[in-house]
Write a structure and sequence with these properties.
With about 575 residues, this protein is of the alpha/beta class. It has three domains: about 150 residues, PAS domain (Beta-Lactamase); about 160 residues, Reverse transcriptase/Diguanylate cyclase domain (Alpha-Beta Plaits), CATH 3.30.70; about 240 residues, TIM Barrel (Alpha-Beta Barrel), CATH 3.20.20. It has 20 helices and 21 strands. It is elongated, with a radius of gyration of 31 Å.
């Protein structure tokens, strides 16, 4: 059931310096080049691999290639041409050697050629030849063996192979699964595992699609090494892989190994890539269980693995399915909530900590679901980040808040949160803020953007440039994220913030937790030393406010500072605060 495999690639790139000069004898530079090659990861690959130059001189081959092609060990004084070495090996016919030579030549010249060349030693013994550029005017030639015990309905043909990885494609995977189901006279115990890479899109966005494709190819190779001969490995599409185990007793152990290989760093074309993965498992429990149902069950298990924090696996059962269905319904509703006008704006008052005079508002999203009612922010905001719709929601929040505040007759300041995903597109965020200010007519000095300190640090150095550009517009900047731990304190020095926000989780624990109280005191002290204002979120007892005021807290938000206001209630609030001198920084 084994399918053809991807072009063998190393987990580390092998780098050779290009030397365009013809070499007619064994030179010291050539010897060093071969030594560098042999010392890298190609030699321990289980797949037959050779390296050639532009004129198809055979610069290197590993032990697997020597065994397959009947070549001598690498350490010989000459560098024969690939067709000569293949001819000396005696395993291939003259016509096959000619086909390999022509195929390699087309790949070297980057001509339009097939992704692979398939040849037969015997009717049941085949090889697939692939060529990959490795830089430095060198190319890898990979010979992938397939032993097939005879022609069966499940035999792999070119139409059943994923061209990028050489694994089975979705069509072949589903046909093989259907064959097992059709032949079953009782429970078979077979299992389906779905593997999804957790941060693959980030790799594509940061390094480009070529690196993403190379990563998929290397991942395919890693997955194949972890499976048994009778297992079928497929790439279903994108970054999703599937494994069909005719005997599913070892499914959980395989899932553990898959998580291990996805968590190890990849070296792809000189880039260190870290991804991770999630796995869903479904095991057949009855005879003739529908293949589509088994894959769907594995998909539900995968979904729950990803929503449980990723880098884990889940085994399908009915209770798991109910939770997955409910969460998928929540996702579906959240994706359409913005278009359906289900979001509204709430204003949380901000007051001076000492005199309790109103100085501004913090803008907050509220989701009014037509059947669920008001959905807590702690539920839908993290979900929006996970499914990728937080950017659109926060764009709506910024535009709506600025347009409303520009119409107030009292020029109080407003604070608006920036989603972590918006930081991934610094140019887009900068343009959004600039155009929103221009369109709404709101003074930049009245707008304060709330940014996650840990998220900014993770996006250095682009984040530093973004912060400077936003300050150039004249807007204020508030840092949030201290609940992530003490290490966040250094971010106050790293970026020119105007304010820092002490989150509700920390304020709530004042007096009750000594470590938290010490952290808040440290934040206050450092902020005072740096001349930065501090905002305490959700102080709800006089004792909490007393501690905050004692340590020099500047602003209170929510809690005793005032309940959140509907947009229609802001007018009356502003009448009460008429005469205030606007925002304090």
């Amino acid at each position: 059931m084994r399918a053809a495999r991807k072009t063998p690639q190393t987990d580390e790139p092998v780098t050779l310096e290009a030397d365009p000069r013809p070499v007619r004898r064994r030179s010291r530079a050539g010897e060093h080049a071969r030594t560098r090659l042999a010392s890298r990861t190609l030699d321990h690959l289980p797949l037959p691999v050779a390296v050639i130059d532009r004129v198809q001189r055979l610069l290197y081959w590993n032990l697997a290639a020597a065994g397959l092609l009947n070549l001598p060990p690498m350490m010989q004084p000459d560098t024969p041409r690939l067709p000569d070495a293949l001819g000396d090996g005696g395993r291939l016919s003259a016509r096959q050697i000619t086909r390999i030579t022509a195929f390699c030549g087309a790949a070297i010249e980057d001509k339009d050629s097939p992704a692979w060349l398939r040849l037969s030693f015997t009717r049941q013994h085949r090889i697939t030849v692939r060529v990959s550029a490795m830089g430095g005017d060198r190319w890898i030639v990979a010979f992938d063996e397939q032993h097939q015990p005879g022609r069966t309905p499940g035999e792999v043909t070119d139409a059943m192979v994923d061209p990028l990885t050489g694994l089975s494609n979705r069509r072949h995977f589903m046909e093989a699964l259907q064959e097992i189901e059709a032949a079953a006279e009782g429970p078979t115990g077979h299992a389906v595992l779905l593997l999804d890479l957790d941060r693959f899109q980030v790799v594509n966005d940061r390094f480009g699609r070529a690196v993403g494709d190379a990563l998929l190819a290397v991942m395919a190779q890693r997955v194949r090494r972890e499976t048994r001969d009778e297992d079928l490995v497929a790439r279903l599409g994108g970054d999703e892989f599937a494994i069909l185990q005719p005997n599913g007793d070892g499914a959980e152990a395989l899932a553990d190994r898959l998580l291990q290989i996805t968590s190890r760093p990849f070296m792809i074309e000189g880039n260190v890539v870290n991804i991770g993965g999630s796995v869903g498992i479904a095991r057949a429990t009855a005879a003739r269980e529908a293949p589509d149902a088994l894959v769907e069950h594995a998909g539900l298990a995968l979904y729950m693995a990803k929503t449980s924090g990723r880098q884990t696996w889940r085994l399908y059962d009915e209770s798991l399915a109910r939770g997955a269905v409910a969460r998928q319904a929540m996702e579906r509703d959240l994706r359409r909530a913005l278009a359906m006008g289900e979001f509204t704006l709430l204003w949380r008052p901000q007051r001076d900590c000492n005199v309790m005079q109103p100085i501004g508002f913090s803008a907050a999203l509220r989701w009014n679901h037509p059947t669920r009612g008001e959905v807590p922010r702690g539920i839908f905001l993290p979900l929006a980040e996970e499914i990728g719709c937080a950017t659109a929601m926060h764009e709506w929040l910024l535009k709506t808040a600025c347009a409303a505040a520009a119409r107030w007759h009292v020029p109080l300041s407003i604070s608006v949160d920036v989603a972590r995903q918006q930081l991934d597109d610094p140019d887009g965020l900068y343009d959004l803020v600039r155009t929103t200010l221009a369109t709404s007519g709101l003074s930049a000095s009245r707008l304060d953007l709330v940014l996650s300190g840990p998220a900014l640090m993770a996006r250095e150095p682009a984040a530093t440039d973004l912060v400077q550009r936003l300050r150039g517009l004249g807007v204020g900047l508030t840092m949030v994220g201290f609940s992530a731990g003490w290490g966040t304190l250094r971010q106050m020095r790293a970026f020119p913030f105007d304010r820092v926000k002490i989150e509700h989780e920390l304020v709530k624990a004042l007096r009750a937790d000594a470590e938290t109280t010490a952290m808040v005191r440290a934040i206050m002290t450092l902020a005072a030393d740096l001349g930065i204002a501090t905002i305490a979120e959700g102080a709800s007892t006089p004792g909490q406010i007393a501690i905050l005021a004692e340590q020099g807290c500047t602003i209170l938000e929510g809690g005793l500072a005032g309940a959140a206001l509907e947009p229609g209630a802001v007018g009356a609030f502003l009448v009460e605060t008429a005469g205030s001198q606007g925002a304090a920084r």
